[in-house]
Amino acid sequence: MDSCRVLGTSCTCLLTSINGLGATPTRRNPTDGTTHTALEDSFAYSKPADWFYPVRHYLGAALLDRKQPKDAEKVFRADLERNPENGWALFGLWQALEAQKRRKDAATAKQRFDKAWSRADFQLSRAAF
User: Fold this and answer.
1) CATH number at residue 17
2) What is the pLDDT of residue 35?
3) What is the domain extent for residue 84?
4) What angle do CA 27, 61, 17 make, to 5 degrees?
5) What is the pLDDT of residue 128?
């Protein structure tokens, strides 16, 4: 058993994640994200999170880049279950719905994004940094 813990998450788990996240989901191979999201989901709950960059944002953005908006929508909705009203995930959801020509749903997502992002000091152009 791993005796080293950082805010409830084992050090082995964190170090494995950091090492593995060097290969975050990319436009070329977004499916790499499945393993990363499972690993991120295994982290103990903490605020702030043990790992700052939610893998689902990168996975969803990569799926949008590959013109797979239905899959991206699922990823962003899953992130919003874990991180309610997260601006990055709402932006990605909005983009995914727009790409599917679901205008009414996209308008609702944009309203949620606008509210979540109302105090931000920069504009997003993508759902991942």
Assistant:
1) 1.25.40.10
2) 62
3) 5-116
4) 80
5) 85
